[in-house]
Each structure stands twice: as structure tokens, then as C-alpha cells.
């Protein structure tokens, strides 16, 4: 594995990273190997976020660099080259709430860490969560909310999942600025988190892997 | 002897000012920064109904203040959405608009200035705002996009006013002015309701928290113009342009605050803060992009005799070391989430502590839990008395009335120093 590309990504050197990708491809290297290096950098970025060495800006910028690299590599990857998924997550902002900044950061964090993430968007009705869990066979459900109205929406969503007979099949995490242990108990969730690192740690725990 | 309303008003003002100045008060006050829909919800009235009727909204504001014994009249947090509706504003959504009647109004963040448009904004901020940003955020302001007029002093005579004709006769312009007239009608009604509310509350002895409002320039750029994603990418891709946008916007908040305070003879300014919170950026990024414009705003307030009331939304514990450098006894710091003990240790002799009773407790907890939390706060700050009680961002809409009452009772029970 080359550290040059991972170093460039971790240094947020967008132009440098893209140049390395092009140079390696021009040099005849397999695009799959380049993609694996880039993914490895994103995993490291997630680890650094978890221990507060980097913050939301680096996650967003890292995701943007990764998008550029993927666009470069995609036409050259003939066979489906996908890393083994660590688990399937269904996530969304609960009904009544249209905020998505926190959720989007969690989605990015889970995706770069190898999870198959199905983002249902904002103001998501209970039945959409239920349908998505069934359709994708999710092991983990993430409920996001910024407003205090989300407390009852989260509770109602978890009750809806239970009423559909799916509660024992999924672990449910909740998050968002006003969410805390009190709301975790109130809503009947399995866990809550202050940030995307906490979300990743819970997902890893619940899907039997390391964060 | 029962104090008169005038005496009560003076006592409450003095208590707030003493706490900000780090002088020990006689008792800890309960001063909610603002309220949105809590007062009307507990009366069984929908959010949409009070959006539509401003006098109904302030009626419930008054009732809640009296019922729960606040030490001032909380600020009105519900915006005049009929005014916004007249302009077809897209940056805010509201109950009675395209949100459910019981939803609160909510902000729609977006890149209203694109990354490659920053130079155009910097070259002519007022022109770009008029012709590009306003049409994007309000549908009926679309005609402004083709507003190309010479400087108005060239037209300031009877003959040359005819040069306005091509603009005024263009499609959509008449409708735009009609919409503005509807905006003005609702805005006048809103201001009349607010004015009556403040007058009535003052006559009963309840001060008004603030009139002036101003955001740190970084938040103006990030929240309003570029979005979190856009401003974040700017940090890496075009940091100098991001700083230039911040420089352009810094005088906006300062001048708006000073102007509002002068016009209303008030001396407090509300400063909502978003993107400087812990997690949103590193210390290095905070020092480069956020702290300079935030501290400039704080110092400008202080130099003009205005008490800045920053609302630190999010967790500002990682930033306490910066807050500790601000002038002592000048800032009314309102906290959302924060490590209370660490605040006391680092900033206890610099600024008072306001807020921080979790919304989760008020909305879903028991009165006993609320009282325990208030007692914990009062115990921590009892030695200095530099404490004002409130939840994290005023009283949450879904608070249980018995929990708000428990907060008041706990303040009365434990807060006499």
C-alpha cells in the first residue's frame, strides 16, 4: 500500500491527492488498489475524528476529495469492486423536523467506514422507516432530530417499528443537539450519541466490528 | 410592603445587571431568553394559529410570564410568517405554510452564494445581494434580478425619474410592490402586537430582554450564504475569500446592533452563535475563522455601552479557554450545552452563567428531576451568585407546564442568597 495518497488525503491536499491518483493510473496501476488506498485514508480520518484530532470540516472536505477520486476511478473499474459491507444502516431525520446537517455528517462517517447506508432524508414518516428496514434488512436504525419536537417523533417512530414486529431485528440509535440519555430512555432507543464518532462506535458495536 | 411595578422593574433590571457585572445578587432570577410556541401550546392553540394572529401570540406570552413567575418578559421568538409568506420566502418554512400546523418554523440552509460567485459578491456586496441573493430567497423579489439603475443621485430630479420607467414597467415589478405592501401590513401588525406586549409587561414590572440582534460574521456567511458544507469547503479551497466575506459582513452585525440599541434606547444585544461550537472546527480553525469576528463583535458592543448576550448553541466547552480572555463582568453568556464545573473553573470570574437546564428534562422529565438540576446549578454558583436560570434556548415548545413551574419553584426555594 502506498502512503503517498493516504498522506495527501489526510493533509486535505485535494489537488495533490487527485494528481497522485492520475499518476498512479497513468503508471499502469490497478484502479482497485488506488481506491483501496483512498478508502483506507477515509477510515483513518474517521478514527482521527473519533479521538478529536480532526473535526467536521476535515470530514466534509475528506468526503469531497473522495468524491473526486471516485469520479476519476469509476470509469476504469470494470468489475464491481466493493469492499465488504460492515452492516446495513437505515437513517433519517424524524417526522416534523427538516434539519439534516448532523444526519449528513453521520451518513458520511458511516459510509466512509464501510457501512451500507440508506438515507431516507428529512421529515421521515414512521412508515418509511418501517418499509426501509424491511426492504434493506437493516441491522441498525439512526434517528436524527434538532428540535425538541423530535423527542416525541423519535418515540413514535420506535413504537411504530415495534408495532411492525421489527424491534428485535434492529438496534436503534438517536442523535441531534438536544438528545441525551434522558431522551434515549424516553424514546426507547438502544443508544444515543453526541456526534458522528459516537454513531460509528454504536454501529460497530452492534454489527460486531471495531469502530 | 409590596413593591410597585416600577420598583419591581428596577429591581429586576438591577439584578440582571449586577449578575452580569459579577456582583452578588440578593437572589437568582429565572429569565427565559425567549419563547416560541410554549405559551400557546399549553393553551391548546396550534403553532399556525399564533403565526397568523400576532396579538393572540403576545396574549399567551403575557399569560405564561405571569403564570410561571418569570423575572422578565421573554423575547418573542415567533417570526411574522405572514410577512414572509407575502414575499414567498424560501429560506424559512413555517406552520400554516408548507409545514404542519403544529410544527415550528424552520430554517432551510443552502448555498445561496455559490462557490464560484464569491468574487462577484466581494466586488459588489449590495448589488449582488439585491440582484442575486434576494431573488433566490424570496420568489416575488425575482424582478430585482434585472434591476440595473444608475446611482440614485443621478436620477434625483423630476425629469430623470422617468429613467425608472423601464424597471418599474417590467414584468413582475408591480406584483412585487403589491407583495411588499402586504408584507408591510403584516409587519406593522406584528410590531404593534410586540409594542403593546412590551408596554404592558413593563407597566407590570417586567423588563424586556433585548431589541438588538446580531450574528457573528462567520455565522452570517455560513448560515445564510454559503451553508455549512460551502463554508467548510471554503476553509480549504478558498480561505482568503472566506475571510474576505467575513470582513464584509462584520460591520453588518455591529452597525445593526448599535443602530437598534440607539433607536430603542436599549443596552442589550442578543448574539446567536452556531458554527463556533466544539466539533464544528479545530482550535486552529476557530482562531482563524471564528474568534476574530466574534470577539470583534463582543468588543464593539462593550465599547458602545451595550451588554452582549451571546447564546452559545451547541457545546462550547472546548472554547472556554478563549471566552476566559474576554473582559470580566461585561458579557451575559447564555449556554446550551456546557461542562458546568469547567466553566466555573475557567470563566467563573469572567462572566455569568445563564441557561443550560436541559430541554430533555423540561419536555420529558419529572418536576423532581428539574428541581434537582436547578439545585445542582445553584449549589455550583451559590458562592458568587453569577447565575441566571433558563433552559438551553429559552423555554422549549414541548415543555411540560409542571416542569417549568418546578424550575420556578426551585429558583424560589434554593436561589435566595
Series of secondary-structure elements of chain B, N-terminal to C-terminal = HEHHHEHEEHHHHEHHEHEHEHEHHEH
Oligomer: heterodimer
- How many H/I helical runs of chain B? 17
Largest sheet of chain B: 6 strands, parallel
> Which structural class best describes the helix and strand composition of chain A?
alpha/beta
Which percent range fits the helix content of chain B? 40-55%
Radius of gyration of chain A from CA coordinates: 18 Å
Largest sheet of chain A: 5 strands, parallel
Main interface by residue count? A-B, 28 and 39 residues
The proportion of residues in beta strands of chain B is 5-15%
Strands in their spatial order, largest beta sheet of chain B = 5-6-7-8-9-10
Overall pLDDT score of chain A: 93
Per DSSP, the total helix count of chain A is 9
Helix content of chain A: 40-55%
Radius of gyration of chain B: 23 Å
Give the N-terminus to C-terminus distance of chain B in angstroms.
21 Å
Mean pLDDT of chain B: 96
Amino acid at each position: 500500500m502506498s502512503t503517498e495518497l493516504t498522506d495527501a488525503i489526510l493533509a486535505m491536499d485535494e489537488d495533490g491527492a487527485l494528481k497522485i491518483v492520475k499518476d498512479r493510473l497513468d503508471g499502469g496501476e490497478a484502479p482497485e488498489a488506488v481506491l483501496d488506498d483512498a478508502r483506507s485514508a477515509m477510515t483513518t480520518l474517521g478514527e482521527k475524528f473519533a479521538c478529536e484530532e480532526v473535526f467536521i470540516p476535515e470530514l466534509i472536505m475528506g468526503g469531497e476529495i473522495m468524491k473526486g477520486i471516485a469520479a476519476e476511478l469509476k470509469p476504469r473499474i470494470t468489475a464491481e469492486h466493493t469492499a465488504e459491507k460492515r452492516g446495513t444502516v437505515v437513517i433519517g431525520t424524524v417526522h416534523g423536523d427538516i434539519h439534516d446537517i448532523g444526519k449528513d455528517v453521520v451518513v458520511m462517517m458511516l459510509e466512509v467506514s464501510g457501512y451500507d447506508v440508506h438515507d431516507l432524508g428529512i421529515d421521515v414518516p414512521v412508515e418509511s422507516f418501517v418499509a426501509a428496514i424491511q426492504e434493506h434488512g437493516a441491522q441498525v436504525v439512526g434517528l436524527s432530530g434538532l428540535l425538541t419536537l423530535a423527542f416525541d417523533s423519535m418515540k413514535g417512530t420506535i413504537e411504530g417499528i415495534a408495532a411492525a414486529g421489527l424491534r428485535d431485528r434492529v438496534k436503534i440509535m438517536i442523535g441531534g443537539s438536544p438528545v441525551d440519555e434522558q431522551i434515549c430512555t424516553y424514546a426507547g432507543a438502544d443508544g444515543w450519541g453526541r456526534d458522528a464518532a459516537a454513531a460509528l462506535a454504536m454501529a460497530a458495536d452492534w454489527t460486531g466490528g471495531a469502530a | 410592603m409590596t413593591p410597585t411595578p416600577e420598583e419591581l422593574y428596577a429591581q429586576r433590571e438591577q439584578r440582571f445587571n449586577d449578575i452580569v457585572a459579577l456582583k452578588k445578587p440578593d437572589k437568582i432570577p429565572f429569565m427565559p431568553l425567549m419563547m416560541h410556541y410554549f405559551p400557546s401550546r399549553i393553551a391548546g392553540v396550534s403553532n399556525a394559529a399564533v403565526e397568523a394572529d400576532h396579538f393572540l401570540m403576545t396574549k399567551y406570552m403575557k399569560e405564561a410570564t405571569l403564570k410561571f413567575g418569570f423575572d422578565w418578559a421573554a423575547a418573542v421568538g415567533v417570526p411574522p410568517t405572514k410577512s414572509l409568506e407575502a414575499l414567498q420566502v424560501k429560506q424559512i418554512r413555517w406552520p400554516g405554510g408548507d409545514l404542519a400546523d403544529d410544527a415550528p418554523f424552520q430554517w432551510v440552509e443552502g448555498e445561496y452564494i455559490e462557490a464560484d460567485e464569491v468574487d462577484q459578491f466581494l466586488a459588489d456586496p449590495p448589488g449582488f445581494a439585491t440582484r442575486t441573493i434576494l431573488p433566490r430567497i424570496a420568489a416575488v423579489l425575482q424582478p430585482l434580478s434585472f434591476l440595473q439603475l444608475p446611482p440614485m443621485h443621478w436620477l434625483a430630479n423630476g425629469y430623470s425619474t422617468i429613467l425608472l420607467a423601464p424597471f418599474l414597467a417590467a414584468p413582475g415589478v408591480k406584483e412585487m410592490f403589491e407583495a411588499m405592501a402586504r408584507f408591510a401590513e403584516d409587519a406593522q401588525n406584528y410590531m404593534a402586537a410586540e409594542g403593546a406586549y412590551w408596554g404592558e409587561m413593563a407597566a407590570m414590572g417586567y423588563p424586556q430582554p433585548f431589541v438588538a440582534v446580531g450574528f457573528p460574521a462567520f455565522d452570517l456567511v455560513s448560515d445564510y450564504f454559503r451553508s455549512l458544507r460551502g463554508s467548510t469547503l471554503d476553509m480549504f479551497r478558498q480561505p482568503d475569500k472566506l475571510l474576505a466575506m467575513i470582513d464584509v459582513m462584520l460591520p453588518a452585525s455591529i452597525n445593526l446592533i448599535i443602530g437598534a440599541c440607539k433607536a430603542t434606547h436599549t443596552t442589550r444585544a442578543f448574539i446567536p452563535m452556531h458554527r463556533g461550537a466544539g466539533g464544528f472546527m479545530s482550535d486552529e480553525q476557530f482562531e482563524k475563522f471564528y474568534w476574530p469576528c466574534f470577539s470583534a463583535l463582543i468588543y464593539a458592543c462593550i465599547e458602545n455601552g451595550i451588554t452582549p448576550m451571546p447564546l452559545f448553541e451547541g457545546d462550547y466547552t472546548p472554547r472556554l479557554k478563549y471566552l476566559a480572555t474576554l473582559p470580566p463582568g461585561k458579557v451575559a453568556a447564555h449556554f446550551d450545552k456546557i461542562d458546568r464545573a469547567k466553566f466555573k473553573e475557567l470563566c467563573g470570574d469572567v462572566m455569568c452563567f445563564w441557561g443550560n437546564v436541559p430541554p430533555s428534562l423540561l419536555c420529558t422529565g419529572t418536576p423532581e428531576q428539574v428541581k434537582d438540576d436547578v439545585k445542582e446549578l445553584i449549589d455550583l454558583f451559590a458562592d458568587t451568585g453569577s447565575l441566571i436560570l433558563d433552559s438551553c434556548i429559552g423555554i422549549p415548545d414541548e415543555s411540560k407546564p409542571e416542569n417549568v413551574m418546578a424550575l420556578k419553584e426551585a429558583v424560589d426555594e434554593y436561589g435566595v442568597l
